Amino acid sequence: MQVLQSREIVPNRNLQRLIQIWSDSVAHRQLDADTAVVPSQDQVKVLVKQLDNNCFSLLMKIICFARESEGNREFLARMDGVLNAVFDFMRNAESDIKLIEQVVKILDLMLSKISDKKPSLETNCLSTILLVLKQGSSDSQILSVRLLESMAVDGESKLKIAEKEGLLPELVKSLTKEKDTRLLEASLSCTIAIAMQKGVKTKLIQSRTIPELKNLLSEPNTSISIIDKSLKLLEMLSACKEGLIEIRGDPMLIQGIVQRVLKVSSKATEHAVTILWSVCYVFRDEKANEAVVSSNGMTKLLLLIQSNCSPAVRQRPADFSG
Questions:
Q1: pTM of the model
Q2: Which of 239, 238, 240, 241 is nearest to 257 (CA)?
Q3: Max mean pLDDT range (125-129, 195-199, 212-216)
Q4: Is 81 strand, coil or helix?
């Protein structure tokens, strides 16, 4: 064993990665030992009452119970005071990201079984989700985004999510093409759900959502599902004045939209045509029209008229040619 000459030495990235791998392997071995036996319902009741002890192993046993079956998840969701216990634990955990990631797993497992999700918006749950989006692992971030989407049940909840300081910008950061594709898809789905509420679109535009969508559309290897969702979100933002102005002022973005017409899916084509129709026909923007023509857009739109797409979609290219 080599003796270090100083404790002030900072390990390089490779050594940091190896240390992390070793640390994770030790943690997994401990978790396997802790969760070898699934707790009974009576034991889970006791475990929930003991949550204020901030014990990692307690959380893992509850997760083990919830993962075992649908019935266990329903039992946990119906248990009196379980949400309060979980939220109290979150407050006590403060910035301990490892503990908070386990809490997010518990919430993800049981929230679908809870009919009234609004109490989760009245607590520091949104602050916890924001912390996980900033500091958590990719898997934990995916769970957090899914939680957000499940909480966005009505206009009031969507506005609360949008108004949480720092949350939308962090969600938009998850739309970068360098991210895990699973996180990217979950973030797009969540953003679409939130954007359905009037007033949220402007906040998303201010958080620079459109440039991120442009990057996704320009990436040749982007999956069909991500393209579909990107164009759907872009269509929603184009329904807002600020969004329409930003789109029509970006010829490269318009050309990127044209490139996706008839090349991805019927859904993607419908979203793309609606955006182009709004910018070029409704708004009558000359530069936008030039961008469509220069990217062979008129030929594609004429082909679309002769295709088997819906009458509403065929009418929009007809408006262009008219």
A1: 0.78
A2: 238
A3: 212-216
A4: coil
**Separation between Cα atoms, residue 265 and residue 276, nearest integer Å:** 16
Q: Which amino acid is at 305?
A: I
The predicted model gives 179-198 an average pLDDT of 91
Residues contacting 204, CB < 8 A, separation 6+: 162, 168, 172, 191, 194, 195, 237
Digit-coded pLDDT (tens) for 229-280: 999 999 999 988 899 899 988 989 988 888 887 677 888 888 888 888 888 7
Q: Specify burial of residue 194 (Cβ count, 10 A radius: 0-12, 13-18, 19+).
A: buried
Q: How far apart are CA 157 and CA 163, in angstroms?
A: 10
- CA angle, 175 then 145 then 266, to 5°: 55
Q: Classify 70 as helix, strand or coil.
A: helix
Contact (Cβ atoms closer than 8 angstroms) between residue 66 and residue 44? no
Structural element, H or E, at residue 145: helix 138-151
Show the tokens assigned to 172: 């938009």
Radius of gyration of the chain (CA): 24
Burial zone of 227 (CB within 10 Å; 0-12 exposed, 13-18 middle, 19+ buried): buried
